[in-house]
What we know:
It contains seven helices and five strands. The protein is of the alpha/beta class. It has one domain: 5'-nuclease (Rossmann fold), CATH 3.40.50.1010. It is globular and about 40 Å long.
Amino acid sequence: MSWALLDTNVYIGHWERGLFEHELKQILRVHIVRHSSVVLSELRRGARSAPARARVEELRRAAPVEWAPLSDDWWEAGDLVRRTGDARGWDVGKRREFQNDALIALTARRHGAALVTANRSDFELLADRVKFPLIVL
């Protein structure tokens, strides 16, 4: 079995809109899912209601392992964000958003994990530069 990290938008799409049921079952058949500290932080930041907060807290409690970016990941993410943002003329907000995506991708690469996302555009940019397995739902 191999590892997989789920991106924030996969959790949100599944929880709020009932998306990805079949795809997630398939992923769980062939991958061991680990949790990214960056994704958990994004989920917590966006959990505005009491039920949403409870769901995110339960996810974190249930996570047997939480993968966090290392200092080298942060360093490399800064370069990826600068180069990509400059080439595409991104504003500060888009660069901030992309930094979290870069950290998630770099964490996946370090562990040899596939990254599962519904965000094709940003993660395809990263997959070309960072070289990690990408599963787009």
